[in-house]
Amino acid sequence: MSAAFPPFAELGEAVRTAARAWHPAERSDQELLETLRALSELRHEVERLQALAAAEAARRSRTVFGAQGLARRDGHATTTALVQHVTGATKREAEALLEVGRIAAEAAASAGPGRPDGDADADDTNGAVLDGSGARAATAMPVEAPWHAAIGLAVARGELTVAVADALRWGIGPIDELDDPSPADGEPGAEALFVRIARALPELIATCRTRTPEQARRAARSLRDRLDPAGVERRAEGQRRAQFWRMWQTESGMFRGEFELEPVAGAEVKALFDRLSHPRRLDRRVRRAFGHPVHGERAYAEARTSRERNAAEGLAQLLRAGASVNPHRVLGERRPAVHLIVNAASLERGRGSGALEGHRDRVPLATAAAGLCEGYLPVRFDGGAVLDLGRDERLFSDAQKAAMAVRDGGCRDPECDRPPSWTEAHHIAHWRRDDGRTDLADGILLCRRDHLRYHNEGWEVRREGSDYWLIPPPRVDPRQRPRAMPSKTPADVLDPFAPD
């Protein structure tokens, strides 16, 4: 083995030795969190190197090498199987390592010879290409950068974790020839979609460096939808075709089922479920029991079971009521509270897409326009009198709450995904303590859990223009570093003229 080979085996043994002498139950809270952070950083670095190694294994296992490919010589039919065998990963994890490693390798190739980050001053042996047996073949030549090159370089440089990079890849989705725009009558040819996405990626990557994979995937999907409105329509059609509802009877005699619904229909079902299972349907005495120091967890679990049972009974009642309706009657009763959000300027231009309140996916503009037939509430974010009540009113009005639901898209806490129907309006400048005003800009939506937590634990919210920042109490962060509180509603739905 070459002396230059990184001593990863020795590093692994050092970690195992340290683990034998470390007992988490004996550590303070601070020591425990510091250790967790350090281990997480180590894991991310290991996964990055795994991805790069997996991509090289895939290159050495290409079909052109036949039985002499690395995977075949090691007794595996595919590179995925090889990576699974070596790493002990699931198939999904192995595929993520291979795909993220591939885009990192392609980015490095487009950057020229050198280290994976494109540094030309690195040892020139790194730029060599090996044949199927691992022997040196020829020096790699720079190639045209793929659209995802920025993601690959960020992984190679350690700026993105493998999980976040994979989430960005999935969020943006595949780009093929169907995504290339054709010029409309009288309009100049538009840029290809992959060019616009490649140009927007650096800003997206900078935003997602400190986000979870779930948040990164939503941000990437929002970017794709903003730059590719036609893709929203194609996805919606695919979702409609992919819907299903299956049922079967279990051995106990109970019936079990599963379904997948397109976003608008699913949101209606979810609104009914929320109405049937909302925590406030529970008796106040039951909810108070959640705080009991001994029986609180049990009380919460029992209450959850009760809510789910109520929802099941309510579903059966709704289906019976629906089946008894005269099929020749036009129904005019109130439908579930599902709100479609669309910008008036997008409707006038005929370009763009709408959004479902409290849902991460877009809906086609035609779907949003059709929803207007059932009525709509115009919302203006210009400081109009209907939205700004000053100190004449203590509570936010229904019009203000509706505007907040459009603006915030649900609970504004960065780690919460509860929809607007589960939220309450919160004064960021407290009404009594700070002489706070009941104005739209000075209120945000928070679910009941986070609303109480903010008040009881000393969390503050600061507004800078249209941006909101969460300020942790000193006991959580002595430096009280602000945490971004992004809206769950896509920014370009509120402002279609925002720059791409």
Polypeptide structure, described:
The model is unreliable at 118-142, 182-189 and 382-392 (pLDDT under 50). The protein has helices at residues 8-20, 29-59, 70-73, 79-87, 91-111, 149-156, 162-172, 193-208, 213-227, 229-241, 263-277, 284-288, 296-323, 344-349, 365-371, 398-408, 448-457, 491-494; strands spanning 128-130, 136-139, 244-249, 255-260, 340-341, 353-356, 362-364, 423-427, 443-447, 460-464, 467-471, 483-484. The strands form five sheets. A three-stranded antiparallel beta sheet has the order 5-6-7. A three-stranded antiparallel beta sheet has the order 10-11-12, with no helix packed on it. A hairpin with a 5-residue loop joins β1 and β2 (136-139). It contains 18 helices and twelve strands. Helix content is 45%, strand content 10%. α9 (213-227) crosses α10. It has 500 residues and is mainly alpha-helical. Belongs to the Rv1128c/1148c/1588c/1702c/1945/3466 family. Keywords: Coiled coil, Endonuclease, Hydrolase, Nuclease. InterPro entries: DUF222, HNH, HNH_nuc. GO terms for molecular function: endonuclease activity. This is HNH endonuclease.
